[in-house]
Amino acid sequence: AQKVTQAQTEISVVEKEDVTLDCVYETRDTTYYLFWYKQPPSGELVFLIRRNSFDEQNEISGRYSWNFQKSTSSFNFTITASQVVDSAVYFCALSDLFDMRFGAGTRLTVKP
Amino acid sequence: ETGVTQSPTHLIKTRGQQVTLRCSSQSGHNTVSWYQQALGQGPQFIFQYYREEENGRGNFPPRFSGLQFPNYSSELNVNALELDDSALYLCASSWAGTGGFNEQYFGPGTRLTVT
Question: Quick check: B41 contacting A, CB < 8 Å?
């Protein structure tokens, strides 16, 4: 069975700090996909990234970066120089072709 | 480009009743997925429709059913409502060449309260 664990329930940082959100997954599949979504206070989930299991290259997009390590079954998300607008709940998710599992989410609060 | 829309925004039903929630996919998308999100939790996958056929289902009983129409809009039907069905129901659309989960665009959700 697939499972996603986001051990950090809530994180609070001060603006301009770097913050890493952890994601650990479990799957028996060799082909799978990993995602991060952001759910701001307005409510709608926003796609951030999709990664397939064969691509372990880390990715950077502006202040966001992702570290995918199959050896530790982790797909961590780092925000550099955090801003107040980054305050949201962040979900890590795992899918195969027919099923999708979200973690419980990490609530990030960035204080000015 | 119109985003994903859902109706109604809020709904109150009584235990035992039936409910239909609607979703209009983003233009050009051929796949729609439905999720249930309880307060303070992550979305739980209900099912996905790809080219009008169910293409995957989560751990939800048969009283949760769906439809996808030729214009790729979709419905979620829930029969015999239970109190635990109270949640935010999210619809998400995407383009998938062979089904599966690509970048999904989520709607604002329908808040269902069962009393």
Answer: yes
Q: Which of B96, B108, B14 is nearest to B53 (CA)?
A: B96
pLDDT band at A56 (very low <50, low <70, confident <90, very high): confident
Is A95 close to B104, i.e. CB distance below 8 A? no
pLDDT at residue A9, rounded to an integer: 97
Which CA distances in Å does B29 have to B3, B7, B52? 10, 18, 12
CA–CA distance, A82 with B61 (Å, rounded to integer): 42
* Contact yes or no for B54/B62 (Cβ under 8 A): no
Among candidates B45, B100, B105 on the partner chain, residue whose Cβ is nearest the Cβ of A97 = B100
Model confidence over B1-14: pLDDT tens digits? 569 999 999 999 99
C-alpha closest to that of B50 among A102, A35, A98, A29? A98
Q: How far is CA B20 from CA A13, B76, B79, in A?
A: 42, 6, 9
Cβ-defined contact of A33 to B33 (cutoff 8 Å)? no
Kindly provide the residue ranges of all beta strands, DSSP E only, lying in chain A, ordered along the sequence: 3-5, 10-14, 19-21, 24-26, 33-39, 46-52, 59-61, 64-69, 74-79, 88-95, 100-102, 106-111
Residue appearing with tokens 């502006």: A62
A70 against B100, higher pLDDT: A70
What residue type is A102 in one-letter code? F
Residue B55 has pLDDT above 80, yes or no: yes
